[in-house]
Each structure stands twice: as C-alpha cells, then as structure tokens.
Write the structure tokens for this entry.
Amino acid sequence: MHLASQKPFQIPSEREDAPRCQKRLGEGTYGEVFAATYQNREMAVKRLKQINQFGLHQTQYTELIVAQSLSINQHHNNIVNTEFIYVQNQLVHLAMEFCDCMLIKIFEQRLTKLERKAVYKQTLEGLQYLHHNNFLHCDLKPQNIMVRFMPTGDHQYTTYIKIGDFGMGEFINQRSSGSIFTPHKDFKWTAGYRPPEIICGYTDLCLKSDVWSLGVTFLELQSGKNIFASLTAERYEELYKQKFSALINALNNDEEIESSFEFMDMFDYDADEREFLQAMLEFDVRKRLNCDELLEHPFLHEDFGSVYEKVGQGMRGELTKLKESQFAAEEQEWHD
Ligand SMILES: Nc1ncnc2c1ncn2[C@@H]1O[C@H](COP(=O)(O)OP(=O)(O)O)[C@@H](O)[C@H]1O
Ligand SMILES: [Mg+2]
C-alpha cells in the first residue's frame, strides 16, 4: 500500500496574500490557533511556534505531513482539512477550514439515539480514512473532535463531524507492526484515553488502539464521565496489577486471555448501543473491532435521511449570536 508519509515535505515560500488572523482560539506547546479571514471567507490558522533554532519539532512536522498528504492532496469530510500551508514572518502556518464548535458542545443538548449513531458513523468514517492511510492518531479525545455546519444554500446546513490535531500521530508500517518515524514514546496519548495495550507497554503499534480512545470519548460525550478518571486509585491499582500484567504476557506470548473489563455498568445505555460501544472497548486489542468492522455493524445500519441536516444544529443559533456579539465588541475596540 502507498504510504503517504514517504513524500518529503517542502517548506513553502513566504506568502503575500496570507489570511488575516484575528481572535486567538487556542494555544498549545507547539502552535497557536486563530480565527482568520481569507478572500472573504472564514478560516482557522494554526501558527507553528518556533521551538528552537534547529527547525520543526516532530509533532509540527507530523501535522504538516498529514496536512499535505491527507487533506491538500486528498480530502475527507470527516477530518479537519488544511487548504494550504504558508510562511509568514518566517513562521509556518496551516490555513484550515473553520470549525464551528467542539463535538462536546452539541452533546450539551441531549442527542437522540439516532443522532448519536450519526455522530458515531461520521467520526468512524474520519478515523477509517486515517487508518486506510496507515495513520494512527494517538490522541483521540473530546477536545480533538470538532463540528462544522456547512451551508448547503437556502438557510440549510449539513453537519460534519471532524477529527483534528494530528501532531501526536504516526504513520505505521502494518507489515512489521512498527513505527516509521520514531519508536513508541510515552508522551503520546492523553492519560484517560490511553488504551490497555499502550498502558501495559506493548510496543507493536496497532491502528485499533485509536478505536479504544474513540470508545472512551463516546462514553464521555454522553455521560460526562471518563472511565479511568472515574475509577478510584485503589481500583486502578488493582487493574494495573492484575489485568495489565496478564495482558502484556498474553500479547507477548501470543496467548488467549480472559479479557472482560467491567465498567459499562457505570453507564446507562440500551443493550444494542452498549454492545456496539463494548466492541470498541474490548480490552484485548486483538479482539477489538476495527473501523471497517464497526462501520459494518448492524447498530449503524440506519437510514440517516435528514439526520445530518439537523444533528447538533440547535447549537447554531447560539453560536451565531456569540460570534456577532464578539465581532461587534471587536469593531467597537477598533473604533475606540
Ligand atoms: N479548524 C479549526 N476551526 C476552529 N477552531 C479550531 C480549529 N483547529 C483548532 N481549533 C481550536 O484550537 C484549539 C487547539 O487546536 P489543536 O489542533 O487541538 O491543537 P493543540 O491541542 O495541539 O494546541 C482547539 O481545541 C480548538 O478550540
Ligand atoms: Mg488539541
């Protein structure tokens, strides 16, 4: 299979007609994100910070490779796409499509079961696209999944769920199960979303590790609870001693393991949704379903019809008002 990462990345030249950055939306160690306008369109710009004089940090380089190979040269509706990369004042910038809100926001107004299915399906389609390109995300969590309401004319919108923030990820070589760039690093995966095989130190990277993090994310979106954060320290310790050490032995020796992991009773779901989420949260990575299998699962066999024209859009009015008041305040500041 063609590996997107094999194309070298070329830093583009300085750009005259760059997007105009306005309000800062977020800041991390390696970059800042701004709302911006470009040719009368709303965009989001990620400005990569200059970490040291030696050039880009691994995570910044990964973001650029993903942008170049998975959204500039190709494209998928369920990831946050970069339109172009440019340099301004010697800093590298990614000009991305603008997302309206985080996925968490649309779960604030209780979703129906059919709407949740629509969210699961779209998110899994985004992840399937990354996985078909052998890209393991390594940092799926509620904060890294966004929503875009795309106008379709006549005051209608279609809701798109979008996976973003690719810096922690890796292109993996499935044949040798190894990583192309770097050996596995501890700083990958945010603690509460780290899958059992990573916690117990298994070193063969597997795309299905992302499926666990996404399962944890779906539970949290609906319940407000993260599985691991909800466990007491003693219970976590007990898990660590018993289950994780048994898991690493079984994985390394290619043995069967009794792998039940009882936490679904902390959550309130119908039997079919519970079974679907449980399949994402299978403790033994070898038995966990992958994105292709989950998308084929009977739980997602639905006629979604007009669901995508509605899901989460109760939020849209509130967001528009918020934006208008922000623009008014900024304009006032400008005049003062
Ligand atoms: N395309 C986008 N549209 C709107 N907001 C964005 C976009 N990309 C990022 N953001 C905002 O910026 C924050 C940080 O971006 P992210 O890519 O997650 O970087 P990091 O977490 O590594 O700093 C996000 O949580 C979100 O609030
Ligand atoms: Mg992030």
User: Anything to note?
Assistant: The chain has two domains: 20-98, 101-309.
